[in-house]
Amino acid sequence: MHTKEEIGEIIRRLEAAYPEAACGLDWRKDYELLFAARLAAQCTDARVNQIAPALFAAFPTLASFAQAEVSSVEALIHSCGFYRTKARDIVAAAQMLLSDYEGRVPDTMEALLRLPGVGRKTANLILGDIHGKPAVVVDTHCIRLTNRLGLANTKDPVKIEARLRALLPPSKSNDFCHRMVLHGRAICGARRPNCAACTLAPLCKTMTG
Fold this sequence. Notes:
The chain is mostly helical and 209 residues long. The protein has 2 domains: 4-22 and 135-208, Endonuclease Iii, domain 2, CATH 1.10.1670; 30-129, Orthogonal Bundle (Endonuclease III, domain 1), CATH 1.10.340.30. The chain has 12 helices and no strands. It has helices at residues 4-17, 30-39, 45-58, 62-66, 70-77, 83-100, 109-113, 120-129, 140-149, 157-167, 170-186, 205-208. α2 runs antiparallel to α6, α2 (30-39) packs antiparallel against α8 and α5 (70-77) packs across α6.
């Protein structure tokens, strides 16, 4: 179990290593982040960022997404995997944003979870990056790193989210999760973690036992 001081040191070390904490998805409008996050399920951010410009050019407004033929969206996102389900969810979400939320991406977990294809990970991303609220985005990197570090002892995203909410200062939680993603990509990979180069090694329970 990490002490409060150790948690603070983990946060400080990640801040020093990754001063620019940001989502890896490219977006300009709030609903673009919502749709990009849906595309990112079982797909890399890099692939989504290759697909998204043509998608958002073809449907430049929320209304155009709401009016789109699902097959037309499918054709533009075909290479990101599970494209039929994703296209259906994007069109349906656009319609719900217009009909239920006056064309704005809502700012509560309850409302966000009503949208097609939106789970807690995406909802937290929206709450943190669009609305500036304390958020804990638990993705595969976060699951892996929290377990290796000893911050959690479960693979259940909901339990990890609750655990991190209890451990992290609310003002730090959103950026902390973005930095976990960056650290997971750069250093603490799934197959070959580069522990020798890891700034968190002295605080990692996998390293220290």
